[in-house]
Write a structure and sequence with these properties.
Blueprint: H1 2-27, H2 36-70, H3 79-102, E1 106-107, E2 110-111, H4 118-145, H5 155-181
Antiparallel strand pairs: 1-2
Helix pairs in contact: 1-2, 1-5, 3-4, 4-5
Length: about 180
């Protein structure tokens, strides 16, 4: 099940990168919205995220049950385990907020944008921070699931690339906010 979750996570990463780049261009006003392809990919991304959450909850429950049987959970030794789960939970909340902010109902062929105020900007910047934290915390377990022998090799490079891309995403949110204020 861990391998399946890792494969789903890899597809999430691919669709997320496409979503982030296309969405950033959309927020910056460089491309037009309302693309059915973008909407389909966003929907597929949400389905994969839901599968990832379900599998992750199942694996977490299995781990907690096994630790209860062993008699101790070792909270101090499992800080990273807890940090991964907490970052995932926070990320799920911020993804739900993201969907609520950017969901655009089709009103008879016309798309109506939701207002993007300071609360929306802050929530989206927190989404970016949670996403970066969740990715950094989970790169090594994903590499283990895929059978990479050297867990450190490439992890830092991947984290730096993701940090740069997420910084650009945060800048796109800021530009979008400024466009709403103008």
């Amino acid at each position: 099940m861990r391998k399946a979750n890792s494969v789903i996570t890899a597809f999430i990463m691919l669709l997320f990168l496409i979503h982030m780049i296309w969405g950033g261009l959309l927020l910056a006003g460089m491309v037009k919205g309302g693309s059915p392809v973008f909407s389909f990919m966003s929907g597929a991304l949400m389905v994969l995220i839901c599968l990832h959450v379900i599998i992750s909850v199942k694996l977490t429950a299995d781990t907690i049950i096994a630790s209860r049987r062993a008699g101790a959970f070792y909270f101090r030794e499992n800080k990273l385990f807890l940090a991964r789960r907490i970052s995932g939970l926070a990320l799920a909340v911020f993804i739900a907020v993201h969907v609520l902010i950017f969901y655009v109902p089709n009103d008879g062929g016309a798309y109506r944008l939701n207002p993007f105020n300071i609360a929306a900007l802050i929530s989206q910047l927190l989404l970016v921070v949670c996403l970066l934290l969740h990715i950094i915390l989970n790169v090594k377990p994903m590499k283990i699931a895929f059978g990479f022998s050297d867990r450190k090799k490439g992890s830092y490079d991947f984290a730096i690339v993701m940090a740069i891309l997420l910084f650009i995403a945060a800048a796109a949110f800021l530009v979008y906010y400024l466009r709403w204020q103008a």
